[in-house]
Specification:
5-stranded antiparallel sheet, alpha+beta, 8 helices
Length: 237
């Protein structure tokens, strides 16, 4: 659930953690403070309160047979297991949140119905929110603005491998449609990607992209190199 304003959060939210109480009391005023102090977000309402403009996207995981023999993608993936009491159906959803300002979170959850699974996934995505390094690492551009990523990065999940490659300004997002949702949420406008393995397994494909972003964040950069790649550290206030 996304609130329209801080007032909406305040009227319905009773903080259960110390960070939540500090946020609602005004001791913590931005998500950047939480990241800088290395604190763990344990309540999704913290993100709703500090980033009221946050956006949500549902990654289409499931699929049903199409008329022409293909597959029609659906927001949730349905799995059925046999128990002594009969068939038990579980629905799983994958959701992403971001604010187009270098913030991105991903959540994967299950439920007995589609609505419950999606809401749980959105909450988990807010708990997993992190900063995405942006910059201009393309040798064809070198504009030193944060429209792409500063370096090439490779992510893995299962048998899927994804390479994220900086692209020049104006190129756009040359990535899969579901991956575009992540890039737009994170504020990345230009990017190339190259993938290998069974990418039709959407969960592994999206998780591999997130793994590439995590590796990008861990990469150490010399101060004199930050300007040359237009590296944007942290979040713009």
């Amino acid at each position: 659930m996304t609130y329209n304003s801080k007032k909406d959060v305040t009227t319905t939210w009773i903080p259960k953690t110390e960070i939540g109480r500090k946020v609602i009391n005004g001791e913590i005023t931005s998500i950047k403070e939480i990241f800088d102090k290395g604190l763990k977000i344990r309540e999704p309402e913290i993100v709703d309160y500090l980033i009221p403009e946050i956006k949500e996207e549902i990654i289409y995981l499931g699929g049903v047979p199409g008329k022409g023999g293909g597959k029609k993608r659906t927001p949730v993936r349905v799995t059925t297991r046999m128990h002594q009491s009969g068939r038990k159906r579980t629905l799983r959803a994958l959701a992403a949140v971001g604010n187009e300002n270098g913030l991105l979170g991903l959540g994967y959850a299950s439920g007995l119905d589609a609505r419950t699974a999606i809401e749980k996934a959105q909450k988990k995505a807010k708990l997993n929110i992190m900063t995405i390094r942006r910059g201009c690492g393309s040798w064809e551009c070198s504009c030193s603005t944060a429209h792409s990523i500063p370096f090439k990065s490779q992510g893995n999940r299962g048998a899927v491998t994804v390479d994220l490659i900086p692209a020049p300004k104006g190129m756009g997002l040359v990535v899969a449609n579901e991956a575009k949702k992540l890039m737009k949420l994170a504020g990345i406008k230009d990017l190339w990607s190259k993938s290998r393995g069974p990418t039709q397994t959407r969960l592994n494909f999206i998780m591999a992209i997130m793994n590439a972003f995590e590796k990008l964040n861990k990469l150490k950069v010399m101060d004199n190199d930050k300007k040359s790649v237009g590296l944007l550290e942290g979040i713009k206030e």
